[in-house]
Amino acid sequence: MFLTRKKPPLIGLDISSTSIKLLELSKSGSGYRIEGIAVEPLPANSMVDKNVAEVEAVGESVKRALLKSKTKSKYCAIAVAGSSVITKKITMPASLSEEEMEGNVQLEADQYIPYPLEEVNLDFQVLGETEGNPETVDVLLAACRSENVDDRIAAVELAGLTPKIVDIEAYTIESVFQTMAPHLPDEGMDKTVAIVDIGATMTSLCVIHNHQLIYTREQNFGGKQLTEEIMRRYGLSYEEAGLAKRQGGLPDNYEPEVLEPFKETTAQQVSRFLQFFYSAGGNVNNVDHLILGGGTACLPDIAELTESHIGVPTMIANPFRDMSAVSRVNKANLNSDAPSFLIAAGLAIRGVEHL
After folding, report:
1. Distance, CA of 62 to CA of 11 (rounded, Å)
2. At a CB cut-off of 8 Å and minimum separation 6, what does 107 contact?
3. DSSP, residue by residue, 12-38
4. Residue 312 phi, psi dihedral angles, 5° rounding
5. What value, to the nearest 5°, has the Cα angle with vertex 344 and ends 342 and 350?
6. Rounded distance between C-alpha atoms, residue 289 and residue 287, angstroms
7. pLDDT (tens digit, 9 = 90+) per residue, 296-308?
8. How far apart are CA 20 and CA 14, in angstroms?
9. CA distances (Å), 37 to each of 67, 103, 319, 326, in order?
10. What is the second-level CATH architecture of the domain 191-317?
11. CATH class in words for 84-146
C-alpha cells in the first residue's frame, strides 16, 4: 500500500474593511476542529469600500495574523465583496462538455458584463438541472474586475501565502450556514433564513431558502457608526473608542444615550433590509428565522431587541458552536469572536473540503 500525500489545508482569510480574520480548520469526524485563529486590525485607509487601497499595509497585517495564529499552512482561500461581483444565472444544454460550456459562458458573459472581458476574472458553476426541464442545467456566471482580485492576491502573496480559491463573500456565508442549520427547527429544511452580517462599514444580507442562497444585498451601515459616536461624545481617538466599545469602562450615560439608540437604529436597519427582500418580488415572501453576525451582533440583547422589532425568531451567529479546538487556541475569545467570523469560517470550510 502506498501512502498518498494529503493536500495542505487552506486557511480561510477574510480581508474586511477594518481587520484581517484568519481561520484554519481541519476535519474532525463529521465536524471541524479549529487549528488556528487570529484577528489583526488593519491600518486606517488601507481598505476603501471593501477594496484594497494599500497592498503593502494589508500584506503586513496578514503577516501579523499568520504569526498570531501559529499556522504552518502556506495556502489560503480569500473572497471578494458581493458589491464588486456581477452574477447571473443562465441555462445551458445539459449535454455540453465542460470545455463547450466554458466557451458558451464567454459568449454569454459578453452580454451581461459592462466591462471589456480582458479586464474581468470570470468563473461559472453548474447549479444543477433546470426545474421542469431535464434537457438543460442552471449555470451561475460570476465576473469581477481583475484589479479587485489581483490586489487581494498581491497582499496575501506579500505575506508568503498562495491563494488557491477566490470566492464571493455571499457564497462563503452559504457554506458556513451548514454549521448553524442544526440549531434551527427542522435543521433549516424548507425554511427561509436571513443572515445579516453587520461589519464595521458595510452590512450584507444573505437569504437562504432550503439551504440554497436565493438573495443577497449590501448596504452602507456598520459598527463604525457606534465607534465614531463614542469618539465624538467622549473625546477619544478612533482606536481608544473601539477598545472602550469592546472592553467597557465608559461613563454611566453611555448605555442610555449612545448604545441604546444605536441598537434601535440597528434593528431598524435590519427591518429595512428585509423589506428590500420582500419587495424584490421573488417566490419567497416571508422569513422564518434571522441570524445576526458581525461585531455588532455581540452587543448585549441585540437579538432580543431585533426580534421584538421584526417579529422573527432571531439568534446570534456562532459557526464555532459544534467545533472542537486544539489546545493552543484561546477558547475564552471564541464565543465573542464567532459572529464576526462568518466569512473566514465559510472560506476555511471550503479550504478543508477541497482536500
Report:
1. 11
2. none
3. EEEE-SSEEEEEEEEEETTEEEEEEEE
4. -120, 130
5. 105
6. 6
7. 999 999 999 999 9
8. 6
9. 10, 40, 13, 10
10. 2-Layer Sandwich (3.30)
11. alpha beta
Measure the CA–CA gap between 211 and 233, rounded to whole angstroms.
Answer: 43
pLDDT above 70: residue 1: no
pLDDT at 355: 54
Domain boundaries in the chain?
84-146, 191-317
3-state secondary structure 249-293: CCCCCHHHHHHHHHHHHHHHHHHHHHHHHHCCCCCCCCCCEEEEE
Phi first, then psi: give them for residue 26, nearest 5 degrees: -135, 165
Judge residue 16's burial from the number of C-beta atoms within 10 Å of its C-beta, 0-12 exposed, 13-18 middle, 19 or more buried. buried
Percentage of the chain with pLDDT > 90?
57
Q: Work out the widest C-alpha separation in the chain, in whole angstroms.
A: 70
Q: Residue 225's CB: how many other CB atoms inside 10 A?
A: 17
pLDDT of residue 142: 85
Note the pLDDT of residue 2.
47
* 301-336 pLDDT per residue, tens: 999 999 999 999 999 999 999 999 998 888 888 888
Task: Name which residue leads in pLDDT, 131 or 324.
Answer: 324
R_g of the chain computed on alpha carbons: 21
Q: Indicate whether 3 pLDDT > 60.
A: no
The CA distance from 299 to 327, in Å, is 28
Contact 350, 168 (CB under 8 A): no
The amino acid at 87: T
Q: How far apart are CA 351 and CA 355, in angstroms?
A: 7
Copy the grid coordinates of residue 47.
Answer: 481598505
